[in-house]
Amino acid sequence: MISRRILAVTGILASGLVATLFGGAAQAQQVLKVGSTPTGIPFTFLDTKTNTIQGVMVDLVTEVGKDAGFQVQIEPMQFSALIAALTSNKIDLISAAMYISPARKEVIDFSEPVYSYGEGLVVPKTDTKEYKEFADLKGDTVGAQIGTVYVEPLKKTGLFPEVKIYDTIPDILRDVNTGRLQAGFADYPILAYNLKQGLFPGVRLVTSYKSTIVGSIGIGVRKSDKELLAKINTSLAKLQANGTVDKILAKWGLK
What we know:
alpha/beta; 2 domains; signal; Solute-binding_3/MltF_N; Polar amino acid transport system substrate-binding protein
């Protein structure tokens, strides 16, 4: 009788140990690697005080994770490397200022849109002309960030002798600031935020310019991760309904 009780207790303890071990493994699998860029303020940027990536899309994916039941591990990388990193399983999600475009949707899936905007135009402050459209810059050398939706439309216009390609938006701003570039195109909110900080005193954001390439950004997901995408969209809907998304946007000056 005693032997049977000992065996029963041992079995229960063993089952509990196995459950604990496998439960721990399951929890570990809920940490998702999220690709974000160190430039792109206020959407994503490197906070030099904490040496961590911060911004709208970091706050957003963190809140989504809390609701959907996963933790996030932010992986810094260049914008042009994000999609390749996702499709090669180096990361699990993309949370950055990435437009939901038809070309990108052929390769990856996106959550429902979280914010919409268009491109902005920057020129040297000494250039006071009120540009309104691409055609007003005919003959100028212009710049755009590699991997963005602005590059091909600028090239296809045939208006510009050269469309310089830059790794980051701050690189564009630096060249405009020093006069090495006549005009630069990039995400309007990112340009506006950078200039508001007074980082590039020789640059002017052209307020008369009207955006022609308007799009929305969302969280990027592998095409094979349909269940994860559904969870993210469900959580996003909750966060939009309860005001969390608006609070995040307001925190970073986008509301």
